[in-house]
Amino acid sequence: IALAEDTGVLNILSISSDNKALESAGYFKEIDRIPKLAVWKNSTRILTCSKNAVAIWDINSTTRKPVQHFQDYHTELVNYVDTIKSEPNLFASVSMDQKCCFWDDRNPSPAFVLYNNEFCSLTSVACNQNNTNYIVVGTEGGDIYLLDRREPKDFISVASCNCYIYRLVFDDSNKLAVCGDLNKVLVFKCEDEILNNAYCNDKHCAIVR
């Protein structure tokens, strides 16, 4: 289990032999707060963001430092990162600089701008693990854009939630759950390159995180 703290500490926890407690298996230290992290399937690497940088850590590393650190690809605070779970070198990031970058850390120039929003900052990103060509980003203005990484610089569909988008999550059937500065959980169906409303739950009495 990877646990990011407001202090910048990235804790690695394991389940005790009697399955009754969590035990520390090590830690790493970032200079600043780590707002988001993501992992890959069957990998020892962890992806984090902090300020305007993204970093990759390896839980088997003998140092407290990241194995890769990418600074200045974004010019402002990185709000969110997500990985393509089955591809251990591929991930996406979004920032207050209004850009979504797509990454392949094997390349000499590891990132390119997949999408640049003209109007507002990007607050969340999610990779579709069922069809890895598709990525969605959320904005502080409440819009959700469906992107195709084979067609950078433009979006292929948009939906509006009229609130700051905090989190986006795909399930295995191309459904996208959304939460933000609302007391609702919204679900969209991603099919035929269109985001369609599928479900709304308003049982919470305060904003959903």
Structure description:
- With 209 residues, the chain is mostly beta strands.
- It has a domain at 81-209: Methylamine Dehydrogenase, Chain H (7 Propeller).
- Helix content is 0%, strand content 53%.
- It is built from no helices and 19 strands.
- It has strands at residues 2-4, 9-15, 22-29, 36-39, 45-50, 53-58, 68-71, 78-83, 90-95, 99-104, 111-116, 122-127, 134-139, 143-148, 157-160, 165-170, 175-180, 185-191, 194-201.
- The strands form 5 sheets. A 4-stranded antiparallel beta sheet has the order 4-5-6-7, with no helix packed on it. It has a 4-stranded antiparallel beta sheet with strand order 8-9-10-11, with no helix packed on it. A 4-stranded antiparallel beta sheet has the order 12-13-14-15, with no helix packed on it.
- Strand 4 and strand 5 form a beta hairpin.
- It is globular and about 45 Å long.
- The model has no long low-confidence stretch (mean pLDDT 94).
